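Hi support team,

I submitted a single chain yesterday and got back a structure, but I'm not sure I'm reading the token output correctly. Could someone confirm the output below corresponds to the sequence I sent? I've pasted both exactly as they appear in my results page.

Thanks,
R.
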Amino acid sequence: MKYIIYARKSTEDENHQVLSIESQLAELREFAAKEKLEIVGPTFIETKTAKEPGRTKFAEILKQIEQSRADGILSWHPDRLARNSIDGGKIIHMVDRGLIKSLKFPTFWFEPTPQGLFMLQIAFGQSKYYVDNLRENVMRGMRQKIRNGVWPLWAPLGYLNNPTTRGTDVNEKKMTLVKKMFKVYATGNYTLKEMSEWSKKVGLKSNLGNNISPGQVQTTLQNIFYIGLMKYKGEVFEGKHKPLISKKLFDRVQEVLKERGKPQKIKHNFAFLRLMKCPCSAAITAEKKIKPSGREYIYYRCTKKKGPCLEKHFLREEALIEQIKTHLQKVSLSSQDTEKVLAELGKDELKAKEQTKIIVQNLKQELTEIEIKLEKLLDVYLAEVISTEEYTARKQKILTRKLELQEKIRDFEQKGLSWLEPAREFVLKLNYAEKLRRSENYQEMKTFLKNIGSNHILQNQKLIFSFKTPFNFAAEPRSGEAESLTYPKVWTQRDSNPRPQQCECCALPTEL
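Hi R., thanks for writing in. Yes, this is the structure output for that exact sequence:
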């Protein structure tokens, strides 16, 4: 009777279980010599798990037996042949048909009899049970890790798996670049493909050393892991790892992802494309016209892709630029007035410190109440009063609020008066508007307008839009004493919270 030797290990890693193959082959050859078994053909060695069907070497062995090149298989144990019901069933079926006349194992007795087939089925069943039980043990361990605030899978970009602590550490080499990726995309000036190219340019690669694709950029920008939370099997958990970015920046990035959708292709480099829409909701396009004199003009008009449109007029780019500069004038602040406002902010800082202490106390009180809510919610869930879906939704909402409170407390305790820096930044942006108004940098004009305003409409040859907070306060008409602006109105009408209304725009274009 002719036998084929088959040896298998459970991993394709060359540095793991290497001796397993060598020891199997040594034992099998010694067993064959002792039992005087005739070995034919090449020795088949496979480095692939048997918990799923699809092994090429195993399939080749069965093919050779069907072609009568061999009568049986010599292997260390039945679990080397199969750990799944499909492969195990194939072997038993071939024994029933008489194709496999014998199976030899140094560690297991088998004869092609009803009793032998029954024992073989039990061996295959035990092998499958071992795999299934091992998987369940691994999954249970992963669930416990996630409950403890430890990420159980591969670390996201910007982090590293710590083999000693089994936790997730910040990758110091990539941390700064990942933060920069969020900040750059938050400006709204780049597509996912451009961010992929940006990552390649600055040398940011995946944890496996590959270039980052646009899809990977999007996955990274949407991952709540970077703000200290973890999403596992649809449920959100608090993580013990160090957050890389603030929730405010993360939320801004999500807004940009939602606004941009699929990136639009721009055929021509017209300065103010993608800034305005028509009242009919269609996009505004631009085209270049050449007069008989040879002079070129750029006009902006409705694309009319949403159906009939009442807007029949074209707007020359020169006229549009004048309107834009008029809008910039509304939120401009001279250098002299800028110095005065900054001086007033310095004086007001001392008064606000006392108010800050009260706010921190209130935030900590609310944080304590949040912890109590989480405990009560868990008790209600364990008592089966609410469903798993309702528990998950409520928990995510409470954890999100908890994260916001913790971030606010950190801002106040670590950064002092967190409103002061945004206030100064806002004043500098007003001064930047003045400088931009006097320049010819149209690309930055467009970016600045998009950041300080929303719903830009071109109607009756007029650019109309709404100023975002706090630029809407600065854009209000001033008369009398207010004509000499020395202190922005947005901070003269304070409530109990000493921080100003947060500016929704990004950093100054010159800082990007």
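A quick pointer for reading it: DSSP finds 16 helices and 14 strands in the chain. Let us know if anything else looks off.

Best,
Support desk
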